[in-house]
Write a structure and sequence with these properties.
With 63 residues, this protein is of the alpha+beta class. The chain contains 2 helices and 3 strands; from the N terminus they run ββααβ. The longest helix is centred in the middle third of the chain and has 14 residues. It starts with a strand and ends in a 5-residue tail after the last strand.
Length: 63
């Protein structure tokens, strides 16, 4: 299974957050959602989780 990456640098933010989270898709969605709520003040709801899931990228493998 392809690992996924959520990178705060790809989202507009007044905080200039540089956090990157990688792992299995469900792990990343859960962790990135928790981060968005606790650090960025978003509300934990289906719309946020859908937005997080839609922003995920495949992790690039260094060979």
């Amino acid at each position: 299974m392809t690992r996924k990456v959520a990178d705060c640098r790809n989202s507009p933010s007044v905080m200039n957050c540089s956090l990157t989270i990688s792992g299995e898709e469900e792990e990343v969605v859960r962790a990135a959602t928790e981060h968005a709520v606790s650090v960025h003040g978003h509300e934990d709801n289906a719309e946020l989780r859908q937005m997080v899931r839609g922003s995920l990228q495949d992790e690039k493998v260094n060979a």
